[in-house]
Amino acid sequence: MKLLEILMYLLFSYSLGALNSAYILTFVFYKKDIRKFGDGNAGTTNVFENINRFLAMIVFIIDFLKGVLPIYIGIKLNQGNGIVALGGAAEILGHDFPVLFGLKGGTGITSLLGGIFAINSNLAVVLFVVFALLFVFFSFSDIRLFNFKPLEESEALTFVVAIFLILSSRNTLLKEYFFLSLAIIIYRHFQKALYVLSKIRVLKS
Q1: Does the chain have fewer CB atoms within 10 Å around its N or its C terminus?
Q2: Which positions, given as ranges, span the membrane (predicted)?
């Protein structure tokens, strides 16, 4: 792949991610800026908890497909793992730091799940089932590991499970994509990531 084509691929991936569905749909249907609600993130979780659950489902589907597309295109173009991983991570970068929205986007977790699905659909299904079971459990229980709301608690624990499963995987593309994206997500939510890590350390001890 020529340098110009690589740059165009990465720019496309970033631009796709930067089209923030949570912000756009919330503004179109409710005339509200989702970033002024809840934790300030323009993503599925904040829409679910503070705007409308049906709209959150639509945002989830769009963000999931946004994660799938760059990986799918890169694989179909027979690009190397490194370029495809960069393309997928560029979409996460656009989602988390969209230029058109003042570099203030979402977490990128839904898009990351979409990217994982494009690489290993079975793993993505497993992670989704883990998340769904955790969400049901925390919705009907007062037990908390991170003192988050049920949806965020489920996301955090599923993310921890994903890290361990992917570390044990032999799929190079999956590892490169996941950990590049993870670095972006941690940078975007550094304090929350440190908090989750500190809680895990306490639990292990």
Answers
A1: C
A2: 6-30, 51-73, 123-143
